[in-house]
Design brief:
The chain is built from 3 helices and 6 strands; from the N terminus they run βαββαβαββ. The protein is globular and about 40 Å long. Strands 1-2-3-6-4-5 form a 6-stranded mixed sheet, covered by helices on one side. It has helices at residues 15-20, 50-67, 85-99, and strands spanning 6-8, 25-28, 31-38, 75-83, 107-113, 121-128.
Length: 136
């Protein structure tokens, strides 16, 4: 019998998830698949200041990880999307490194994008759910 999957929702406003009909994360087979997190304000609109937008994206990401009993140290794979990386990558990366943690670092794929619904940065991850959190 296949293992069931279940959605993970952080505490707080769910504006983007409700508006766009998706789950913040899916827990399945001991892994957590987190949807792309962006630097949205409480109303779902983009934060215009890029470094602040990246900080908010990490705050949203960390809230989803926490809701599943994980931390960023449990993340094994990261994909980041950056609009106009030639202009924004340094500002984005300066903030990313503040949240990255200690080695060994997760695998990383970076994608330059032309449009992210008004956002300049998006991060999606896969995390290994710790044994202590697996039974939540």
């Amino acid at each position: 019998m296949p293992q069931q999957r279940d959605a993970v929702f952080p505490a707080g406003p769910q504006t983007l998830y409700e508006r766009n009909h998706y789950s913040p994360a899916i827990r399945a087979h001991g892994l957590l698949f987190v949807s792309g997190q962006v630097g949205s304000r409480k109303d779902g609109s983009p934060e215009p200041h890029v470094p602040t937008q990246v900080r908010l994206a990490f705050a949203h990401l960390n809230a989803v990880l926490h809701a599943a009993g994980c931390t960023f140290q449990d993340v094994i794979d990261v994909t980041v999307f950056v609009v106009d990386p030639q202009q924004h990558l340094q500002a984005v990366w300066d903030v990313v490194l503040q949240h990255w943690g200690e080695a060994p670092y997760p695998a990383l794929t970076g994608v330059g994008a032309t449009w992210l619904s008004g956002f300049h940065f998006e991060i999606k991850v896969i995390a290994k759910i710790p044994e202590t959190a697996a039974n939540r």
